[in-house]
Amino acid sequence: MVSEGKGRLFRRKDGKFLIYLPKDLAEDSMFPFKGSDSIFVKVSFKIGDDKLIIERWQEQEKQPNS
User: Fold this and answer.
1) pLDDT tens-digit series, residues 27-55
2) Chain-centre distance of CA 22, in angstroms?
3) Domain-by-domain residue ranges, the chain?
């Protein structure tokens, strides 16, 4: 089981940032994101911390108009 690996955050020539995840990590049976080639994720951090948090994106349920 692979639960950690050395990834990389880098900037492309067009100015966008990408996060590279090692193949062994992303293909591990316990990796939390499964399915399609591309999924939406929520990326966040806390001010003053050195951790980046990546979570599955949860679509907000539409509220009925009042």
Assistant:
1) 999 999 886 778 899 999 999 999 999 99
2) 13
3) 8-56
